[in-house]
Amino acid sequence: MSKPTLATIWLDGCSGCHMSFLDIDERILQLDELADIVCSPIVDRKTFPDAIDITLVEGSVSTNEDEHKILLLRSRTRTLVALGDCAVTGNVPAMRNVFPLSSLFNRAYVETATHNPQTPTENLPTLLKRARPIHEIVPVDIFVPGCPPSADTIFTVLTDLLAGRVPDIAALTRFGA
Amino acid sequence: MGKTITIDPVTRIEGHAKITLQTDEHGEVSNAYFHVTQFRGFEKFCEGRPFYEMPYLMERICGICPVSHLLASAKACDALLAVRVPPASMKLRRILNLAQILQSHALSFFYLSAPDLLLGMDADPKERNLFGVMRNNPELGRGGIRLRQFGQQIIETLAGKRIHPGWVVPGGVNEPLTVQKRDFLLAGIPEAIQIILKTLRWFKKTMESFREEIRTFANFPTLFMGLVTPDGRPGYYDGAIRFTDSFGKIVADNLSPAHYPEFLGEAVEPFTFTKFPYYLPFGYPDGIYRVGPLARLNLVDRCGTPLAQQEWVEFRALERHSVLSSFHYHYARLIEILFCLEHIEEFLNDPEILSTHVRSTASLNNLEGVGAAEAPRGTLIHHYRVDEQGLITWANLIIATNHNNLAMNRGILQAARHFVRSDKLTEGMLNRVEAVIRAFDPCLSCSTHADGHLPLHIRLLAPDGTLLDETKRPS
């Protein structure tokens, strides 16, 4: 019997949740026995299979491309996990939401540029007006708060899900952990 | 009129990026663009917040090098307070900085690039990852996991948490180091040093199989920039900025990071959210320079720790003057891991590290502050302005990875011109173009302080639009 499939993806995040995932250290080899990592920033297999058992999503939805990705993933994933505070509540990326986009771009690309000031737009995604948590776009099955959630928490959540158990999140982690 | 090839996304890097290559009528690559596709706006949305929040806010720019931002930010806050941190606290912060570089370099080398280096650039994409490394050379893979783990454990032991820790505060750190913790960390050093020495031996042999890549991976003259100590050793946590050229000659020295606007410009290009720093006196884009491991080892007069010093001498013998090939970032990264371990051991053995005086206190004394430190990828600068209440009114961040932006763009063009030649695309060819970027170990969350995956689909079109070839990355 083939192993269950696991995917991980980062949207508008800092990669801290993925680094916390890697903080399971040698337990990653145990994980490799339990599941097939079919798609992730750390592997070169890049297309989403048509059906994934568990997908961990880090980061909030900040661009039209993020939105496209999360809609696609939701339609192909059995259990969608919002991993980390940015995915669960918006958190740091959402701090831009009170500022008009133009003022963000102005500070980064006009006020502090010494040559060729302009807002980059060529071949780049479009920023949404607000950075949003995952559940504002698609239904989420499991929320794992934390900034980032600890490696032990992530490993427990994964092993629980792979064994068919529902993890007790409140016992493991909280916002800002 | 030519064709466009898109590599989207670039994998086994930190962050979001894609590459487009343009070819001319003869099928030769004429232009290459490295697009970083994420933007968050830290420089603006920190406005109105108290300055002492900045270390913990800014470290969330990046999950791989939060400590680098934590330290640069804390140093900018030290400047706002106009304090000097106590000597013990300086040493503790230094250990934290070195541990960050250790774990980040281990991630880059073992988790992200070793698949190419061990299995080959043309290896099956399904195998080309950490698990493939473990299957083919378990000792190398386990050693890499252990080195990263050790760096993270040092950070966790000192600062309470591996990723986005507290502990570092404006004025110092908020808790001294205990004897138990110090001894726990010291105990891990010998094994870690053995691992990196073994890895260096393995890598120096392996390099022989990559002569073509060494020749063509962003191998061209540039300036080099980084922090050095007054006696010419790597600065890492502290120091003055030095620029050298490809002949190893010093172009500018003893520059204070606080005066960065006098010698660093930032250009914008429309195709990427990352800016392009350049050496102001040479203009844009002639002021191209590189930072990070390769640059740091080119800049210094000596390493300063015994084993690393030997390796450094051997490294510098690769070329007559500065080492120019960006492939050698991998080699430089390994030497820096060794240096970090030896240096951490020196500090831990220093009795002053146990001092209980670890924090200087003051209120706001300046309305402007700049802090700089070496992140794993290069020099990082945080610049804040505050009002009389200490609320941020303005911020500018010069990000380590961005300094390499000009070199990365030029580098993928060079590699693509060499490897992308026929009308038939191969997966290994594309992987090599990506591998140029991996050599720089960019931190794109940082560089766009401002992944998910789209299917990788390359289409090769003739000038008139007919489809010549098509390749999709296998799932």
Describe the structure.
The complex is a heterodimer of chains A (177) and B (475). With 177 residues, chain A is of the alpha/beta class. Chain A has helices at 16-22, 27-34, 64-76, 85-89, 101-111, 151-162, 169-172; strands at residues 5-10, 36-39, 52-58, 61-63, 77-83, 127-132, 142-144. In chain A, the strands form 2 sheets. Chain A has a 5-stranded parallel β-sheet with strand order 2-1-3-5-7, sandwiched between helices. The longest helix of chain A is centred in the middle third of the chain and has 13 residues, at 64-76. Chain B is α+β, with helices and mostly antiparallel strands and 475 residues long. Chain B contains 15 helices and 16 strands. In chain B, the strands form 6 sheets. Chain B has a 4-stranded mixed β-sheet. Chain B has a 3-stranded antiparallel β-sheet with strand order 1-2-3, covered by helices on one side. Chain B has a 3-stranded antiparallel β-sheet with strand order 12-13-14. The longest helix of chain B is centred in the first third of the chain and has 33 residues, at 87-119. Chain B is globular, with a radius of gyration of 22 Å. Residues 450-457 of chain B have low confidence and may be disordered. Chains A and B meet through helix 1, helix 2, strand 2, helix 3 and helix 5 of A and helix 1, helix 4, helix 5, helix 6 and strand 9 of B.
Q: How would you concisely characterize the structure shown here?
A:
The complex is a heterodimer of chains A (about 180) and B (about 475). Chain A has about 180 residues and is of the alpha/beta class.
Question: Could you state the order of secondary-structure elements of chain A as H and E?
Answer: EHHEEEHEHHEEHH
Summarize the amount of helix of chain A as a percent range. Answer: 25-40%
| C-alpha end-to-end distance of chain B | 33 Å
Tell me the span between the first and last alpha carbons of chain A: 37 Å
What is the subunit organization of this protein? Answer: heterodimer
- Helical residue percent band of chain B: 40-55%
| Proportion of residues in β-strands of chain B | 15-25%
Strand adjacency order, main sheet of chain B: 8-7-6-11
Mean of residue pLDDT of chain B?
A: 91
Mean pLDDT of chain A: 93
In angstroms, what is the radius of gyration of chain A? 17 Å
Largest interface: A-B, 69 and 75 residues
Kindly state the number of beta strands of chain A.
7
Structural class of chain B: alpha+beta
Strand order of the largest sheet of chain A: 2-1-3-5-7
What is the overall shape of chain A?
globular
